[in-house]
PDZ domain-containing protein
Amino acid sequence: MHKLDWKKSLPIGSVAIAGVMLMGTAFAGGFFIGNSRVAASLVPSAAVPPPNADFSDVWKAWSVIDEKFVGAAVASSTPIASSTEEINQKRIWGMIGGLAASLDDPYTFFLPPAENEEFVSEMSGSFEGIGMEIAVRDQVLTVVSPLKGTPAERAGLKAGDLILNIDGVSTTGLDVTSAVKKIRGPKGTQVTLTISREGWSTPREIKVTRDVINVPAVVTTLRSDGIFVIEVATFTANAPDLFRAALREFVESKSSRLILDMRGNPGGYLEAAVDMASWFLPSGKVIVTEDYAGHSANVVHRSLGYDIFNENLKMVILVDRGSASASEILADALRYHGKGMLVGANTFGKGSVQ
């Protein structure tokens, strides 16, 4: 067995992560998830109305609602005299959500403050739900991957499953944000999903009991044959620090053979994938390019140049149908630069950054 030498010492300080999943833009107390450059353009430094947009219809509609709308809880036909500050704010969030929805991009949507808090909670690695990543693919709500050790995995849900109903209600036309709200819930409660799967003649109902989901972002194992395994389950905010610690364990094990297991990894922060790739690549090597097809300047993400391993490293990268987004970026960057061999099945194919 070859000894694995370090090219340079491992930094002791934690790695800073500046970004959102994968890129996002804070907006008026809420949050945009979407193509990073497009989302950024929605928040100009000076909030000036676009010159070619006529907002008169918006304010006309606002006035008509004020004058004519009668809430369901109001027994009489008397119009509501005025809107409260809370109702007005809700309307504004709805308008921003509609603006994002008008892009017809399943990965671009707006999160009001309450939903944003849930999102931040999830990306910190802990939330209540069933533990799976979902996306809208070909206009159908689809399981990207159930997270390992979660109720979703234990219930038998698999990458590529089509979610037709949630608690008996059709998911047709349902966006990801709305679907997440329906699927999540307090620990101990149950959600029923109607699932269509390749190879099944008819859809089946799968009942899943919700629980607290503590996402094990990085898990390490030293096998009896001397091969060191690092499982990366998701790219949460703290994943780079956990990955750094895992690499330290690998080096201390004196093994030169590494399996990087990203099967079932649905993705997460783009910056986390860039940081992890940097442990294997010289400074400046391209990890991924965001291509805007001429609508904006491309963004190239390059290695930060930690590059601690020499040619004695023998690495295999495991992927499967549930590997998506940031895990695809990391896996292919390492393959492209000759740092490891890809083994497994075709990945999910989420070729977008948001």
Notes: The chain has two domains: 1-68+83-125+216-354, 129-214. The two ends are 42 Å apart (CA to CA). The chain is about 25% helix and 25% strand.
